[in-house]
Amino acid sequence: MTTETATGLDQKTRDIIKATVPVLEEHGTAITKRFYQMMFENHPELKHIFNQTNQRKGDQPKALANTVYAAAVHIDNLEAIVPVVKQIAQKHRSLNIKPEHYPIVGENLLLAIKDVLGDAATDEIIDAWAKAYGVIADVFISVEAEMYDEVKETPGGWVDYRNFKVIKKEVESDVITSFYLQPEDGEAFPSYRAGQYITVKAVIDGEAYNHLRQYSLSAAPGGDFYRISVKREDAALDQPKGVVSSFLHEHVNEGDILPISAPAGDFFLDVEDTRPLALISGGVGLTPMISMLETAIKEQPEREIIYIHAAQSSKFHSMKDRVEEIAGQNNHVKSYTVYDSPSEGDSFDKAGRIDDEWLASILPTNDAAFYFCGPKGFMRAMYQHLKAYQVNDTDIHFEIFGPSDDITK
Predict the structure, then answer these.
(1) Average predicted confidence (pLDDT) for the chain
(2) Where does the record place the region Reductase (predicted)?
(3) Residues 130 and 10 occupy one common structural domain
(4) SS3 state at 163
(5) Is 284 annotated as contributing to ligand binding?
(6) Smallest Cα–Cα separation from 209: which of 56, 49, 55?
(7) Catalytic site positions
(8) Phi/psi of residue 179, each to 5°?
(9) DSSP-derived secondary structure letter, 195
């Protein structure tokens, strides 16, 4: 995609879009929140696709606002946002977003801009944004078309959802359970890169709409199954209990069928990098880290690996035995456990939370590859710790659960 074809807009239109940047910065989340309200009123069938929990929490409107804002800022050079487009497009492909969805989004986004801004949203501004949205949508559709073609051409690959049978259900901790999946039809299915995810379509009795959730694959690729390890999201003061995680834990058993999409995602282990590898996880963020750990010891048997996991206590620590087994069998692997609130009798390396001094004391060098995953607060802290350790941004890799959020601020 060239700058000229990506922009495809006359100078007047681009000037109008750039002039609205301060307005988007101030009202962006209000606009996108109203957009989702209007779109679901006009097209309730789209609730089958969009995560309603993220809508209630406000995460999805904020994520969309950030994307629209970035597009406006870079309207003269949309190539600058291609990495973000590709990341979002991976999620769209996994959710089976189609070209016909984009006009619906565009129509309701323009209605929301007009609704929130009132008379300030002149016909000239609305017309400019209609043109800009058309160009931006075309970029997404083009990128996603390539991704759909790629998965169709992959041996065993498929588009849309395919039924997989739960061949094993294994409790990993008080809150995490693993599900081992194989195709119901017994046919071939594609491998994946360590760190990628699948989308599970949950069709739940009593629910008006389907629920789609993306879960990291928690085993090394190359086996005869996919494995996801799901945390049960219990009700708390600030959130209801997780609809899909509760469904999986309480109602899905061995022999049951789950429709899933083919593996996707741009967060995966670079097996060409031979420098020391640091894998850092908090809570259920260990799922892609376990996949990377198992992959690295198979494909890079001499690579130095530092595996760090933070949990509340041993009751919430999944796959500890597996990690200890790997560390015991591989001298180049070192494992560390951090418990925030350890229980009596727990075995761990640090109580409390990871801090700059402790992290620097166990890491061999800052010239390494660093991957981390976990709750957003944990990830913000890890990013700051690694920057304090003077790690280059190009060596910092992370995956965010749910809608994209900037953890670097």
Answers:
(1) 91
(2) 156-409
(3) yes
(4) strand
(5) yes
(6) 49
(7) 102, 144
(8) -125, 125
(9) T
Q: What DSSP character marks residue 393?
A: G
The percent of residues above 70 in pLDDT, for the chain, comes to 93
Q: Domain for residue 27, yes or no?
A: yes
3 state SS for 292-343: HHHHHHHHCCCCCEEEEEEECCHHHCCCHHHHHHHHHHCCCEEEEEEECCCC
* pLDDT tens profile 268-287: 999 999 999 999 999 999 99
On whether residue 230 sits in a domain, the answer given is yes
Structural domain contains residue 409: no
Would you say 92 is a known binding-site residue?
yes
One domain, residues 148 and 15: yes
To the question of whether residue 216 is assigned a binding role by annotation, the answer is yes
| Range name among 52-56, 65-69, 113-117, 255-259 with the lowest pLDDT average | 52-56
Whether residues 296 and 356 share a domain: the answer is yes
How far apart CA 1 and CA 393 sit, in angstroms, is 25
pLDDT digits (tens, 9 = 90+) for 129-143: 999 999 989 999 999
- In degrees and rounded to multiples of 5, residue 72 shows phi and psi of -65, -45
Q: Which of residues 231, 260, 289 is at a domain's end?
A: 260
Best CA proximity match to 373, nearest among 352, 402, 348: 402
H or E element that contains 231: strand 226-231
- Spatial separation of the C-alpha atoms in residues 265 and 192, rounded to whole Å: 9
Better-predicted residue by pLDDT, 45 or 290? 290
Residue 226 is labelled as binding a ligand: no
Predicted confidence band of residue 47 (pLDDT cuts 50, 70, 90): confident
Asked whether residue 378 is assigned to any structural domain, the reply reads: yes
The answer to whether residue 150 scores a pLDDT higher than 60 is yes
